C-alpha cells in the first residue's frame, strides 16, 4: 500500500493512459481532476473520491485554473 498527496498543476496530466496491477483510490483535497478510466471520463471536484482497478487503462488531467491536490493510494505500490 502506498499513498501520497499527488499534485497536478493546471493543464498538467498523466501524459497518456497507463495500466498496471492493483487498485487505486483517491480523494480530491483541492482543485479539479478529470479522471479517465477506459472510455469514461469523470470530472472530479474538491471533496470527490474515486476507486478503480489499476488494470483498466486510466489517465488524468487538471482542467482547472488552480493546482489540484489529491490523496492518491495504490495497492500494491506502483510509484
What does this structure look like?
The chain is mostly beta strands. The protein is built from no helices and seven strands. The strands form two sheets. Strands 1-7-2-5 form a four-stranded antiparallel beta sheet, with no helix packed on it. It has a three-stranded antiparallel beta sheet with strand order 4-3-6, with no helix packed on it. The protein is globular and about 30 Å long. The N and C termini lie close together (11 Å). 14% of the residues are buried. The mean pLDDT is 95.
Helices and strands in order, then pairings?
Blueprint (H helix, E strand, L loop, with lengths): L1 E7 L14 E8 L1 E6 L2 E6 L3 E5 L4 E4 L6 E8 L4
Antiparallel strand pairs: 1-7, 2-5, 2-7, 3-4, 3-6
| Mean pLDDT value | 95
The helix/strand class is mainly beta
Radius of gyration: 11 Å
Shape: globular
Low-confidence stretches: none
Q: Give me the count of strands.
A: 7
Strand order of the largest sheet: 1-7-2-5
Q: Could you describe the largest sheet, including whether it forms a barrel?
A: 4 strands, antiparallel
What fraction of the residues are assigned to beta strands by DSSP?
over 45%
Helix content: under 10%
Give me the strand/helix succession. Answer: EEEEEEE
Count up the helices. Answer: 0
Instruction: State the separation between the terminal residues, measured CA to CA.
Output: 11 Å
Amino acid at each position: 500500500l502506498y499513498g501520497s498527496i499527488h499534485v497536478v498543476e493546471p493543464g498538467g496530466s498523466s501524459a497518456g493512459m497507463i495500466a498496471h496491477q492493483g487498485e487505486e483510490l483517491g480523494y480530491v483535497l483541492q482543485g479539479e481532476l478529470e479522471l479517465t478510466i477506459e472510455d469514461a471520463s469523470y470530472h472530479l471536484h474538491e471533496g470527490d473520491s474515486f476507486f478503480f482497478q489499476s488494470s483498466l487503462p486510466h489517465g488524468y488531467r487538471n482542467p482547472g485554473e488552480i493546482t489540484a491536490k489529491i490523496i492518491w493510494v495504490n495497492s500494491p505500490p506502483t510509484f
